User: Fold this.
Amino acid sequence: MNTDFLAQARRYEETYGGRISSEERPLFHVTPTVGWLNDPNGFSYYRGKYHLFYQYNPYNTHWASMHWGHLVSEDLVRWERLPAAMAPDRQYDNAGVFSGSALALPDGRHLLMYTGVEEQKRADGFIDSRQTQCIAFGDGLNYQKYERNPVITPETLPEGSSTEDFRDPKLWWDEEENCFYAVVASRAADGSGAIVLFRSADALKWEYISTLDRSRNQYGKMWECPDFFPLDGTDILIVSPMEMLAEGLEFHNGNNAAYITGRYDRSTHTFERTELHSLDYGLDFYAPQTLLTPDGRRVLIGWMQSPETGHSQPHDIKWFGQMTIPRELSVRNGRLLQRPVRELERYWGEMVIYRNVYVRERLCLPQVSGRCVDMTVHIRPAGGALYQKFTIKIAKDTEFYTAITYDPNNSVLRFDRSHSGFRHNIVASRKALVRYQGGEISLRFIIDRFSVEVFVNDGEQVMTSTLYTPLNADSISFEATGSAIIDVKKYRIEL
Assistant:
């Protein structure tokens, strides 16, 4: 098997991608050239540019026949589309070129590591599925799969591990040990997710080292899309657990994204877990991946969708799937903070500021509107009495709106998109327990036509959601039950 599927995909992109106008897309969030997008892949810095690949079906706005799409950026905000990087054109990846990562090599090549999915139909009709880890080398535009792929097979895993759930390698170069490491998602003998660690001197021959952590059927089933890195004196393991049960106001998406804090012992290659938390408390977030920027920042980007809502697209849409705004990560008091990358500030246009605005019942402020904005709202009680609730409605007209409501008595933030333009019966609301500050709360809204990301209290929590409200629904309103004081700073984003 080695038909020219990649050339075919590139021709299709060239023909149909140009038929999607810029007005039909978000202004600054990543979308596919055409068709379907899911997990971010190969998020890396190579030859002076950030590279972002993604799971990609160019031929339809639904998941199928996974390719790797490709974009580059100089600043993590403005992205340039490149031709598709890989297609399922080998026997070992005939059912899909699944998720993986990338790394710049000292010899100038760009190394991609991905999961190849092979399916074979038995005489009785049963389909055998097998996942292996494969590599490709390229120059930032064109990539050649290694002639001796796969480089890691399930036979290297602990006894009883699954051969069909073994995917999503995230690799890095270890300067101290002068070798490559990779974490890969696996399913252990008990049926639960496990994150396994591999090592290689040359990225071609790999050895199993250890199992870093396992769900043990406590935090979901299969764990997907691992990432592993040190940050601010803490070791962080990111996973995307499938079929996860909710705990209080955490983990309500079924398929979630979570981060695990702990301590990694380099001598024994063991990871001691400390805590596990949600990465995003909204409705649309999954399968994130990080990179280390040249100036030392750990930056995360995620698929702005969830598997459960992957069939909620409007009938006439020409693309489906977005990425989040890239987010700078840090650790404070053992918790992960996420903030929009500082490069977004380069695209701040018109600024509107209001201070000490008294709000009782409903209020709209002149020039506080828009569907491509960066807006921060600081809310606090008016006088000694605590207001009962405070609601901000965005992407609003007489029919549509998306509402974010804070209940200070319970310190619960509620996101509601039930009037956000969806015509499918999908989940519309999420709640998050936020840190109590006597009724004060700070909310930063990153709004980009078809999505909103709400950063709570300087990134302590985030709530992310897509929306398909008509673009002329661009009003923003503020409403208090009781009375409150707000400060508002709003920038129009201009690219």
